[in-house]
Amino acid sequence: QRREPDLDFYGHLRPRGQAPSKQALGSSVTDLESKFRLPAGFWRLFIALALLNLLGAMDISIVATALPVVVGEFHQTQNMSFVIVGYSLAVALMVPVYGKLADKYGSSRLFGWVVAVFLGASIACGLAVDILSLTLARVLQGFAGAGLGILPLAMLSGLLPERVRPKYLAPLASVWAVAAIGGPVLGGILTDTLGWRWIFFINVPIGIVALILAAGALPKQEKLHTNRLFDVWTWVLFAATSVLLVTTMRGFAESIQSVLRQGTLELALGTALVAGLFVWRSVKSNDPVLPLHIFGNRGAATILVIGTLGSTNLFGISGFVPSALQMGFNIPASLAGLGLVPMVLVMVSTSIITSRRIAKTGKWRHLPIIGTSIGTASMTAAYLFSSSAGPWFIVLCLAISAFGLGLIGQLPLILVQAFTKAKVFGAVTATVNVSRDLTGSVVSTIAGGVFGWGVVNALTRLNLPEGWNPAALTPLQLSHLDLTTRAAVNSAYVESFQPIFLNSALAYGFALLLALTMPKLQLKHATH
User: What does the pLDDT look like over 310-333, one tens digit per residue?
Assistant: First the structure.
């Protein structure tokens, strides 16, 4: 039997029988993990990947604060959503493609190209002369941004053994939570000081620093796959399904507020048909863009559903919480935005601590059960008592729910890889991310529709001043109402938010039932 060559971290041939030096190995992860040592240059690589992951995540939210100034300058307020949707949809469509590219060509070979395209697109965004050129540049930026999100995860998954991965993937994943708050804050500061174009130009120096850190630290030894890239038709059907699904959910959400829009049912049937074709083609194909066969493993499918329900429920409703705090409790906009800070801080810190504990002990079985139980209890309490307990009770319930989600942390990705004995980390990572992203879009769309319908339906029964539109009430208008009418409006917003808490509690409860059925699995120490 031919013996594989003994290569070091950078792909250089090591003389047979020669032990690696201490400089080449780095420090051990823990005493219990003495069989595995971090390679030299790992921390430079990790910081570079974290910076790039931050850029990809922050460009989803950093535009939100600057958007009114941007569309005002271009006189295109009616098309403002294109600037955000162009980026987020491009990311969702390209994530599985990068997963396949990473498995075939290696994450390291794609690294430089992805960063270069992202920085070039960022410059193009900053130089945009109208809404069309900005939208096109954002789409290109999103194509590269998908790579910034998945390549770091795939690269680290290939370098680290299963038991060690949570310790390093959790901080990397927490970047997205930090970006959710830091993005709008940074965007507002840059817009008010240097101008909105600098929300894109700022990417260039950060990206260059990341490239310098990663130079010479990228791993060259990767197990690549020589089969063809993927079945293009599975990606076409996936893209069509994603676009139609988001469009259909938007139509249903808008229909809830009045009557069913013409063509919505036909669009829903078309979405179901295209989705069915996508599943059929993916199962039939030898190289689908998303490896749906992983759902054939009960453990992988179960933990994927648990993680998806947990994360999408929390972040799907949190986007509407600032509006509920402003309009339901007369909280100023600045304080309403800060109401999400405890949630993010609790989730990030809990996820990091839990992941380090998993790396040290290898025990994880109890975490999904405890995490989903906490989520169920906190959302049930929010549904029952938030209207009478006040705004900070809502903030507290979200923070407690985030604690439960932090206990689950990166387990969905780690366990899906472990249950399926994944050798193609890019494709599996892409499947986990796509499940989260698409479900999050659907949950957010439905939650927004339910909240909006409840508010409009309640406000139409109130005696608002003549000419005031119940569907377009602002905090400034609310402050001009008499105390009695203002209190009635407050109650309408608070009561309209209760069904969202109830739906979230039911979803967490279902995830708890699934967590109780999780099969046992021991995480491995070694990478092979």
Answer: 877 776 676 677 777 878 888 876
